[in-house]
Design a protein that fits this description.
Chain A is of the alpha/beta class and 259 residues long. Chain A has a domain of 168 residues: P-loop containing nucleotide triphosphate hydrolases (Rossmann fold, 3-Layer(aba) Sandwich). In chain A, 34% of the residues lie in helices and 21% in strands. A 6-stranded mixed beta sheet of chain A has the order 6-7-8-3-9-10, sandwiched between helices. In chain A, strands 2-1-4-5 form a 4-stranded antiparallel beta sheet. In chain A, a hairpin with a 4-residue loop joins strand 1 and strand 2. In chain A, helix 5 packs across helix 6. Chain A is globular, with a radius of gyration of 18 Å. Chain B is built from 13 helices and no strands. Chain B is globular and about 55 Å long. Classes of the chains: A alpha/beta (259), B mainly alpha (275). At the A-B interface, helix 3 and helix 4 of A face helix 8 and helix 9 of B. Bound molecules: adenosine-5'-triphosphate and magnesium ion. The site of adenosine-5'-triphosphate has 12 residues of chain A, from helix 1.
Chain lengths: 259, 275
């Protein structure tokens, strides 16, 4: 049997009214993959994720998720957004947020969550180590704790693919290590696509690495080659150094893209 | 005290007003909590004022103004809701425009209508004398629709209010839920109009949940407390209005506003004592 791609992107061009952000992206991801993507601010990483989730229509090209169109296939994706919910006043408990991961399009299913749904919620809470926070209100949590809630919510969907956009941005290094351990375990049965600025952490934990800056440079390798970096129009250099020990690259391009 | 109350409510119109208060509070408390949590207070204001266009046109053509108000509030809820779903910033202007157009149409058609129009004030500022038997039936129906919708879709509504993007990725019917919620806001606005009037109705929708939000951390609790507060404001508003001969709508809203100010003061004190 052929290996079927869980995410497949062909000749993709995508962006917003003002300009095209992603050009000519081709990407295939398989069931046992753990892909890390890096790239400068504004490089198009979040845009790529939005396209995979069917939240943004591409200008050209095709995306399939689990062999289906993105908007259908996304039910298999557990998604952790880069940006946390802005409304800090919203009165909602940790448990209720994670329970969102069990919701289905069918309203009758959501009216009363079944006992296996509740079990899945408990499991997801335990996996990220926040089971004792379940009764707490979201606005009483620290940034890192909140981040874990969103990861639990993604896990509660029992996904085949995890998409994590900067999951460690507000997490201390110990928690970030815990997170990577958890992801390594989950990678047994879940394909993972992770975006991060922290290349040191990424490169020692992911299986393969790529670089997004308008174009995607991804060859399914663990190491970033200088060629990839050049083609990627300058990923953050200090971060890349880990994968390219013998070469020091100029850092000015990162400054250019920084906003 | 008890005796006084039993005298007040021995009048049929006062009993009707009290029953109306109950159903209106039920609908307004529950849907108002969603209005506040979704930050759609301005859309709700737009719906209320747009409804006045329906009142004016229906009146001009000799039809029941309630029907006109229901039609206008539903259509404007759908238009503003669709715009909001498309672009949050673009919707803001549209809301303002529809808000004014509704009022303008209403006023123009009412000036074109000949004859006695004093009772038209009751649509703007409410009147407890205005509550009829058919109004009560409509209020019951709206309260039942709101309650049924929210109970059945509670988790969905929580999800779309809290995190629309995640709800979309889970393929929840976000747009359908959102538009239904706004139509129910429209229906609630129209029935509450009988009590407090179109201009003040937005206060009845938003003040009780805003108070509840200060002190409770669960959406169900906030809905329940909003219903109770809203009913208390209406009840005491009715009593005061009866005894002072001042219109009930403004009294109710003033009570709610005072409670809101006191409640935020209490919260301030509480917070500053903690820190
Ligand atoms: N909603 C939007 N409308 C218009 N332009 C947008 C929108 N979102 C992003 N952009 C633009 O698209 C480009 C890519 O943004 P994107 O969010 O994908 O970058 P990113 O790689 O995720 O960056 P970061 O590391 O800062 O998260 C940026 O130039 C940004 O200004
Ligand atoms: Mg991003």
């Amino acid at each position: 049997m052929d290996k079927q791609a869980v995410v497949s992107i062909k000749d993709l061009w995508a962006g917003y009214e003002a300009d095209t952000v992603l050009e000519d992206v081709n990407f295939e991801m398989y069931q046992d993959d753990f892909v890390g993507l890096i790239g400068p601010n504004g490089g198009g990483k979040t845009t790529l994720i939005r396209v995979i989730l069917g939240l943004l229509k591409p200008e050209k090209g095709t995306i399939t998720v689990m062999g289906q169109q993105a908007a259908r296939g996304r039910k298999h994706i557990g998604y952790v957004s880069q940006f946390q919910v802005e409304d800090k006043q919203f009165p909602i408990s940790v448990w209720d947020v994670v329970a969102m991961g069990r919701l289905r399009p069918n309203p009758f299913h959501n009216f009363r969550l079944a006992s296996h749904d509740k079990e899945a919620i408990e499991t997801a809470l335990e996996e990220t180590g926040i089971a004792d926070l379940r009764e707490r209100t979201m606005n009483e949590l620290s940034g890192g704790q909140r981040q874990r809630v969103y990861i639990s919510r993604a896990l509660a969907t029992e996904p085949k693919i995890l998409l994590l956009d900067e999951p460690t941005s507000s997490v201390d290094s110990q928690s970030s290590n815990q997170l990577y351990d958890l992801l390594a375990q989950l990678n047994d049965h879940i394909a993972i696509l992770l975006i991060s600025h922290d290349l040191t952490a990424i490169s020692s934990n992911v299986k393969t690495i790529g670089c997004v800056n308008r174009r995607l440079v991804y060859e399914g390798n663990k190491e970033l080659t200088p060629e990839m970096i050049e083609a990627g129009y300058g990923c953050p250099i200090d971060l890349i150094a880990h994968g390219v020990p013998h070469r020091v690259l100029p850092g000015h391009q990162y400054e250019d893209h920084h906003d | 005290m008890i005796e006084q109350l039993s005298t007040i409510f021995s009048y049929e119109f006062m009993r009707n007003a009290l029953i109306a208060s109950f159903w209106i509070s039920l609908a307004a408390g529950v849907i108002g909590a969603l209005v506040v949590l979704n930050r759609i207070v301005s859309i709700s204001g737009g719906i209320a004022h747009a409804a006045y266009g329906g009142v004016g046109i229906a009146y001009y053509f000799g039809q029941d103004p309630m029907i006109g108000a229901l039609l206008f509030s539903t259509v404007s809820a759908l238009i503003m809701g669709a715009a909001q779903r498309k672009s949050k910033s673009g919707a803001d202007t549209l809301i303002g425009v529809m808000w004014s157009i509704g009022m303008a149409i209403g006023i123009i058609f009412i000036s074109l209508t000949r004859g006695y129009k004093a009772n038209l004030m009751s649509y703007l500022f409410g009147s407890i004398l205005a509550v009829s038997g058919s109004d009560l039936r409509l209020m019951t129906l709206v309260a039942a629709l709101v309650l049924g919708f929210v109970i059945f879709n509670y988790r969905n509504l929580l999800a779309i209010s809290y995190d629309e993007t995640f709800s979309t990725v889970r393929n929840l019917p976000v747009t359908l839920l959102y538009l239904t919620m706004l139509v129910l806001v429209g229906l609630t606005v129209v029935v509450a109009m009988r009590m407090v009037g179109l201009i003040l109705v937005i206060a009845l929708l938003s003040i009780p949940p805003a108070i509840a939000l200060y002190h409770f951390k669960d959406v169900r609790a906030i809905m329940l407390i909003s219903v109770v507060l809203s009913f208390l404001f209406c009840f005491f508003g009715l009593v005061i209005s009866f005894q002072t001969n001042i219109q009930a709508g403004p009294v109710i809203i003033l009570l709610a506003s005072v409670a809101f100010l006191l409640s935020s003061l209490v919260r301030r004190l509480h917070l500053s004592r903690k820190s």
